[in-house]
Design brief:
With 464 residues, the chain is α/β, with parallel strands linked by helices. The chain has 3 domains: 4-145 and 273-340, FAD/NAD(P)-binding domain, CATH 3.50.50; 159-270, FAD/NAD(P)-binding domain (3-Layer(bba) Sandwich), CATH 3.50.50.60; 346-457, Enolase-like, domain 1. 32% of the residues lie in helices and 25% in strands. The protein has 13 helices and 22 strands. The protein has helices at 14-25, 43-48, 50-68, 84-108, 182-193, 213-226, 281-284, 319-333, 362-368, 383-387, 416-428, 433-437, 447-457; strands at residues 4-10, 30-34, 111-115, 118-122, 125-128, 131-140, 144-146, 159-160, 174-178, 197-201, 229-231, 234-241, 246-252, 259-263, 265-268, 272-274, 306-308, 347-349, 354-359, 372-378, 394-400, 406-413. The strands form 5 sheets. Strands 1, 2, 3, 4, 5, 6 and 17 form a 7-stranded mixed beta sheet that branches. A 5-stranded parallel beta sheet has the order 8-15-9-10-11, with helices on one face. Strands 18-19-22-21-20 form a 5-stranded antiparallel beta sheet, with helices on both faces. Helix 3 runs antiparallel to helix 4 and helix 3 runs parallel beside helix 5. The radius of gyration is 23 Å and the shape is globular. It starts with a strand and ends in a 7-residue tail after the last helix.
Length: 464
C-alpha cells in the first residue's frame, strides 16, 4: 500500500522548501520533489539566481572599489588584478553552503525529499520516477523560467540567459543586455565593474519600468555616470553569430530603420514566465490563464486539494513573496488563517547603489485619484553617506494627504535594500509618516535619511 502524505510539494525553491518547513513545524507528514539536474534543493534563487548573483555583485563591488576608490581613502594596494576563476569559485562555495543548509532543514523538519520530475497523475497522486505518492494536498511551487526572445537563440555561452551570465569564462569586451529590468541591470553592472563595455537595450522608454518614474530617471543617470550605456524605446529583432562577434539587429520600438550593434556577448533578460508545463495539470483540471499562470483564490486552484504558490501564480516574481505565499498556504491547509499583503512586498535591485521600493508609486496614486503628500531627502545631506563618499540617491515617502498613512516608499542609495524594511514594517501596521518622523534613529546612520524624508511629508525636514 502506498505511503500517505498530508502534503506533497512539487518544487524545492524558496516557495517549496519554506512550505515544507512550515508543514513540518505544524506536524504535517510532508514530501518535497525537486527535478533540478544538479540534484540540489533551493530552486533558481539559490542555484542560479539571487544567491550567486549577489556573490558576484559583492565581489565586483569590492574589486571596483579597490581599483578606483581606495587611493582617496588613503589605502595603497600596490595594484589590483582580477582572478575571475577564483571569483566564480567563491560564488559556487556560497551556493553549495546554502543548498546544503536547505537539505539540513528538510531533515530537521522530517520532510522526505524525492529527486526527479513531479507529475500529477490523478486526484491526490503525484508520480516521481517509479514512485507514486498519495497525498491529501498537492502544493505546486515550480517557479518560473527565462522568457525566450524570438530571433535571439540562447546558447548559454555567447548569447546567455541569467544562468550563463553567472559563468562567463572571461570578461566580455562588449556585453549587450536586452532588458532594462532588475536582472539585466544587476548582471550588467557586475560585468561592467569587471571591465566590460555594457549597453542596455530596453523596449520601453525607461529602465525599471514598474518602479517610480523619478527613481528610474535618477537611477539611470547614476548608472550612465558609472559607464553603462542605454538604448531605450528599442527592440532587438535578431542576432547573427559570427566567428569573433555577434551582430544584433536593433530597431526603434515604435518602428523604423534598423541598426546593427556589434558585440561579443549578449544577455537576454526580458523577464520570466511561469513553469507550469508538464506537471499534469490538465489530468485533474487545474486551470491556467493565457500566460500559463495557475489560477488561484488564496492559493487554492480550481481543483480541491491542489494549491499553488510563488512565481507560478500571479504577483511579483520574488523569492520573498514566494516564502510568504508558502507560509500562508500551509497554514490554510492546516486550518489556520493564512494571508499575504502584496502591497507590502518590497522590490530590491542589488546594484551599486541599490534601489528599493514598496507600496504605490506616484504614477499609481495619480492614476487612482488618491490625494497624497511627498517627503524627500537626498543622501548628499546624510552625514553617514557623506562620510563614506556614498551620496548618490534619495529617499521618497508617499503618504495619504488626509490620514498621513504611508502609501509607498522609494529609495535609491547604498543599503537601500536594508533601509526599506522600516517602511515595510510601518506600512504593515498601517502606520503614518509621523510615526517614522517621531521615532528616534541612530546617528550617524543612513536610516536617518528615511526619518528626514518622513519629516518632509509634513514640511519639517531638519537636515537639508
Amino acid at each position: 500500500m502506498a505511503e500517505q502524505y498530508d502534503v506533497v510539494i512539487i518544487g524545492a525553491g524558496p516557495g517549496g522548501y519554506n512550505a515544507a518547513i512550515r508543514a513540518g513545524q505544524l506536524g504535517l507528514k510532508t514530501a518535497i520533489i525537486e527535478k533540478r539536474d544538479n540534484q540540489k534543493l533551493g530552486g533558481t534563487c539559490l542555484n542560479v539566481g539571487c544567491i550567486p548573483s549577489k556573490a558576484l555583485l559583492h565581489a565586483s563591488e569590492l574589486y571596483e572599489a579597490a581599483e578606483k576608490s581606495f587611493d582617496q581613502l588613503g589605502i595603497k594596494t600596490g595594484g589590483v588584478a582580477l582572478d575571475l576563476a577564483q571569483m566564480l569559485s567563491q560564488k559556487e562555495d556560497a551556493v553549495e553552503a546554502l543548498t546544503k543548509g536547505v537539505e539540513f532543514l528538510m531533515k530537521k523538519n522530517k520532510v522526505e525529499t524525492f529527486l526527479g520530475a513531479g507529475e500529477i497523475v490523478g486526484p491526490g497522486k503525484v508520480k516521481v520516477g517509479d514512485k507514486t505518492l498519495e497525498t491529501k494536498n498537492i502544493v505546486i511551487a515550480t517557479g518560473s523560467e527565462v522568457t525566450p526572445l524570438p530571433g535571439v537563440e540562447i546558447d548559454e555561452e555567447r548569447i546567455v540567459s541569467s544562468t550563463g551570465a553567472l559563468e562567463f569564462a572571461q570578461v566580455p569586451k562588449h556585453l549587450v543586455v536586452i532588458g532594462g529590468g532588475v536582472i539585466g541591470l544587476e548582471l550588467g553592472s557586475v560585468w561592467r565593474r569587471l571591465g566590460s563595455k555594457v549597453t542596455v537595450v530596453e523596449f520601453l522608454d525607461k529602465i525599471l519600468p514598474t518602479m517610480d518614474a523619478e527613481v528610474s530617471k535618477q537611477f539611470q543617470r547614476i548608472l550612465k555616470k558609472q559607464g553603462m550605456e542605454f538604448k531605450l524605446s528599442s527592440k532587438v529583432t535578431g542576432a547573427e553569430k559570427l566567428k569573433t562577434k555577434i551582430k544584433l539587429s536593433v530597431e526603434p520600438a515604435a518602428g523604423g530603420d534598423a541598426e546593427t550593434i556589434d558585440c561579443d556577448a549578449v544577455l537576454v533578460a526580458i523577464g520570466r514566465r511561469p513553469h507550469t508545463v508538464g506537471l499534469g495539470l490538465e489530468t485533474v483540471g487545474v486551470k491556467t490563464d493565457k500566460r500559463g499562470f495557475i489560477e488561484t483564490d488564496h492559493f487554492r486552484t480550481s481543483v480541491q486539494g491542489v494549491w499553488a504558490i510563488g512565481d507560478c501564480i500571479t504577483g511579483p516574481m520574488l523569492a520573498h513573496k514566494a516564502e510568504d505565499d508558502a507560509v500562508a498556504c500551509i497554514e490554510l491547509i492546516a486550518g489556520k488563517a493564512g494571508h499575504v499583503n502584496y502591497n507590502t512586498v518590497p522590490n530590491i535591485v542589488y546594484t551599486y547603489p541599490e534601489v528599493a521600493s514598496v507600496g504605490k508609486t506616484e504614477e499609481e496614486l495619480k492614476a487612482a485619484g488618491v490625494a497624497y503628500k511627498v517627503g524627500k531627502f537626498p543622501f548628499m545631506a546624510n552625514s553617514r553617506a557623506k562620510t563614506n563618499h556614498e551620496t548618490d540617491g534619495f529617499v521618497k515617502i508617499l503618504a495619504d494627504a488626509e490620514t498621513d498613512k504611508v502609501l509607498g516608499c522609494h529609495i535609491v542609495g547604498v543599503g537601500a535594500g536594508e533601509l526599506i524594511a522600516e517602511a515595510v514594517s510601518v506600512m504593515e501596521f498601517g502606520g503614518s509618516s509621523e510615526d517614522i518622523a517621531r521615532t528616534c534613529h541612530g546617528h550617524p546612520t543612513r536610516s536617518e535619511a528615511v526619518r528626514q524624508a518622513a519629516m518632509g511629508v509634513e514640511g519639517w525636514t531638519m537636515q537639508a
